[in-house]
Specification:
mainly alpha
Length: about 425
């Protein structure tokens, strides 16, 4: 029988595949339905807003009900994706996208906090970062494949509908997994003759003992997200097109961003292995800093040097993601993981929305190079602040490794048995 971890990784990959296809097919399908640029932007913003609101206001879940909640979220998203591109939709597309929480950003969705907490709960401290590395690696590769699949010679509406149906299929997978988990629990209870102790419910932020730590992480991570909003793919593609564009340049951009995603998908397992040697905070900071320096250098380079730096940055810039997710779930109690992930996701989502308008204002005031240079310097400041503030905060596996250094070999082996 498949484990909950395998189900979560597989369904996340299917959802990312759908999101990659929808990112290209959905705007084209809406355009074919006679929606203008402004309304397409409203649909995309409504989906992001609905997802953020659902994360913020969604009901607290019992640990045993997380799979059912994931099934409900997938059902909402899939139905909205199919309905938005229908020739005669029952609701305005903006309303359907909002009610379905149809965010096309895989890390800004009501699924992510529950997935983060469930994956962390099911992994040992030693394996937690590796699990998050695979989680992100499979998702990134699926996003790239979904975008590539959307270039197939089919109608955008058909592609969007198929992607929506794929997300609906994940809802069925979650529901089946929830039923199987309930059946396993009943068998265990019947064999033991007593009811299994109920796991603690996921806490709200106001009830968390680590509230100050969670808010500090949210503040730092949201600053990084705001700076990242200066160089989101759409704005960076616009900068490249303005500087180097011409006939057929869209194909060059598509190839460049596809290669960038593929390279990033291979960087996550490397990050997990590196974190074993140098720790999670050092992995976050010292892989992120060089990628930010690449960003600062890009405006001053020739075209092919720029492409090279983009690929180098693709290798380095996402290596902090599994380390970050592992760190934020490792330094809070199990029943505070959902609250931690939710709070950080909301802060990052709001900050990211504010980045592009600030970048546009800086572009107009100081020229096209200014947003890239500013983003690189701001993100570097975030890295240094993270190192200063959290360098002494360590997850359990790093505390055990540090404590084992001065022990005799026999005691060291016992203490490290869950670390290696």
């Amino acid at each position: 029988m498949l484990s909950e971890r395998v189900i979560l990784l597989a369904t996340r990959s299917v959802r990312s595949l759908a999101l990659g296809a929808l990112g290209i097919a959905l705007p084209l399908a809406l355009e074919a339905n006679a929606l203008g640029t402004a309304r397409i932007a409203y649909v995309l913003s409504a989906g992001l807003g609905g997802a953020t609101l659902l994360v913020a206001l969604g009901p607290g879940a019992q640990v045993r009900n997380r799979l059912w909640a994931l099934a409900a979220y997938s059902l909402l998203f899939g139905a909205a994706a199919v309905g938005v591109v229908a020739p005669a939709p029952p609701l305005p597309p903006e309303a359907a996208a909002f009610l379905g929480a149809m965010s096309l950003q895989p890390n800004i969705s009501p699924h992510a906090p529950l997935e983060h907490a469930s994956l962390a709960d099911g992994a040992s401290d030693a394996d937690r970062t590796k699990v998050f590395a695979w989680y992100n690696s499979l998702s990134t590769a699926a996003l790239a494949l979904g975008a590539l699949a959307a270039s197939a010679p089919a109608s955008p509406a058909a592609e969007a509908s198929v992607a929506g149906a794929a997300v609906l299929a994940t809802a069925a997978c979650y529901a089946c997994a929830a039923l199987a988990a309930a059946a396993r629990l009943r068998r265990v209870e019947a064999a033991a003759g007593v009811a299994a102790p109920a796991p603690a419910d996921d806490k709200r932020l106001a009830d968390c003992t680590m509230r100050r730590r969670i808010l500090s992480l949210a503040a730092l991570f949201s600053f990084d997200s705001w700076a990242g909003g200066f160089v989101i793919n759409a704005l960076f593609a616009h900068w490249l097109s303005e500087r180097y564009g011409g006939d057929g340049y869209a194909k060059t951009l598509g190839t460049l961003f596809f290669a960038n995603q593929v390279i990033a998908s291979f960087s996550f397992p490397v990050a997990a292995a590196l974190s074993k040697q140098v720790g999670l905070i050092n992995t976050m900071v010292f892989t992120h800093l060089p990628s930010n320096l690449c960003l600062v250098a890009i405006p001053f380079c020739t075209e092919y040097q720029v492409y090279g730096l983009v690929l180098v940055r693709g290798l380095l810039s996402q290596m902090d993601v599994p380390a970050r997710e592992s760190f934020m779930t490792g330094v809070v109690p199990r029943d505070e993981r959902v609250a931690c992930s939710r709070t950080i996701m909301i802060a990052r989502a709001v900050a990211c929305v504010l980045g592009p308008p600030c970048a546009a204002a800086l572009w107009r005031a100081r020229g096209p190079a200014a947003p890239l240079v500013f983003a690189g310097l701001a993100k570097s400041a975030y890295d240094l602040a993270l190192l200063v503030v959290f360098r002494k905060v360590t997850p359990p596996e790093e505390r055990r490794a540090a404590a084992a250094v001065s022990l005799p070999p026999t005691e060291k082996a016992t203490l490290l048995k869950d670390v290696v």
